[in-house]
Design brief:
single chain, about 425 residues, alpha/beta, 5-stranded parallel beta sheet, about 35% helix, elongated, disordered C terminus
Length: about 425
């Protein structure tokens, strides 16, 4: 790149408001966390740019459960109407016996009592599109694969695969499990295969048995070292179906794409002898994909003077229990507040990033531990009715007191470990 071109690139990353120069913020990754922090910063007047390596926007996956805290944060960003339109208010949870579907434990108010905001179930693609639409044109840059980060004393230089460069005052790595930004802060972190695979599917409600249609709680069939999770999304038009089962041998951490026919055979084999209604649900479903579940040890730190991380780049959790996206949204709200404090003169940038990390590290480590504990519980090895029922009731009792199930609002201030 020529010197003149470098000057032009630097100028495009700077915005001046009168005599005050806003922090130039670069976000790597246009997933849920990256977009949420970009919206929060944009609404606070920051000059923010998002860079996504994919050539087009889209969100792989199926359903997501938003906690009351996440709903409150998105409401603060002006997005509640879209959550209400595209989501489904969560109506508690119900555990069912794996063989015949008998209800073994239930709590109809688990996600609403003691909470000030509603929890929603959504299709990930609907949430992603809502976030994209909340940003003005020109903020998101596609086909921009970050390959190197060079932190200087007064700026961060980001290099992309096509040879272009950008300079920022602060860089946020929201680039997921295989984060390039994280690898500039830490040595690559090995992942441990859990021995579990998952298949996600979406079933049109009008193709399901009558008993599986209409308003319903989150349902989980448990026992025999497997589980099935179902809940409605897209305004009740679709049923999200998540299955998890033991698997021998290592499988890729990202989505793998065997044919739908192969996945259908896997479901039929792995859940042979389970509640017959589940097999009707499987047959009505459109399979999204299959992937292996991996575990990562939490990072001891994730910020430097000018670079920080959020979401899976900082604290990946077992991706089965909704904490990944919710913790990324909380990260985004907290980080935006701390950066706004820098603009107000409440300390320097390095201190703000350190405080953000300190606040969020406690809570996200707790989320990691809760997700691991949930994984052990939901993969209940018991097969007899009374044994499975006792495990389910114990699980429900723990969920009823978990700070990650019933969460107070707390989004007006940096989201703390006590939220």
């Amino acid at each position: 790149m020529t010197d003149a071109a470098q000057v032009r690139e630097t100028a495009t990353a700077r915005e001046t408001d009168g005599s005050t120069t806003r922090l130039r913020v670069g976000v790597i990754g246009a997933g849920i966390g990256g977009l949420t922090v970009a919206i929060a910063l944009h609404q606070k007047g920051f000059n923010v740019s998002v860079y996504e390596k994919a050539p087009q926007l889209g969100e792989i996956g199926a359903g997501i459960n938003l906690t009351g805290t996440s709903t409150a944060i998105l409401n603060d960003l002006g997005l509640l109407a879209e959550l209400e339109r595209l989501g489904v208010a969560t109506r508690g949870i119900e555990f069912r016996f794996w063989q015949d579907g008998r209800t073994i434990a239930a709590n109809s108010s688990l996600f609403s009592e003691a909470a000030e905001t509603t929890s929603y179930s959504m299709h990930r693609a609907d949430l992603h599109r809502t976030l994209v639409d909340a940003l003005p044109a020109g903020v998101i840059h596609l086909d921009a694969n970050c390959v190197a980060v060079d932190e200087k004393s007064d700026h961060v230089l980001v290099r992309f695969e096509d040879g272009t460069e950008r300079q920022f005052d602060v860089l946020i790595g929201a680039d997921g499990l295989h984060s390039t930004v994280r690898d500039t802060i830490h040595e690559p972190i090995p992942a441990t295969y859990s021995g579990t695979n998952a298949i996600r599917s979406l079933a049109p409600m009008n193709r399901l048995p009558e008993s599986m249609r209409g308003p319903q709680p989150i349902r989980s069939w448990v026992g025999n070292n497997r589980f099935v999770f179902t809940y409605p999304v897209r305004g009740g038009e679709l049923l999200n179906v998540l299955t998890a089962f033991p698997h021998e041998g290592r499988v890729g951490e990202s989505w793998v794409q065997p044919t739908p026919e192969d996945c259908a055979r896997t479901l039929a084999d792995e859940f042979r002898g389970w509640d017959p209604i589940l097999h009707q649900v499987f047959e009505a479903s459109n399979i999204s994909g299959q992937w292996g579940i991996y575990d990562r040890t939490p990072l001891p730190y994730w910020s430097t003077d000018r670079v920080t991380l959020l979401g899976d780049a900082a604290h990946a959790v077992v991706p089965l229990f909704g904490q990944g996206a919710n913790q990324a949204i909380e990260d985004a709200a907290s980080l935006a507040e701390f950066l706004a404090g820098v603009e107000r003169g409440d300390g320097d940038l390095s201190h703000a990033l350190g405080e953000y990390e300190k606040v969020r590290l406690v809570r996200t480590t707790q989320a990691y531990e809760v997700s691991r504990a949930n994984a052990a519980i939901f993969h209940c090895p018991k097969v007899q009715f009374d044994d499975v029922r006792q495990v389910a009731q114990n699980t429900l009792d723990k969920m009823a007191t978990s700070r990650f199930t019933i969460q107070r609002r707390g989004s007006a201030e940096p989201v703390s470990a006590q939220s």
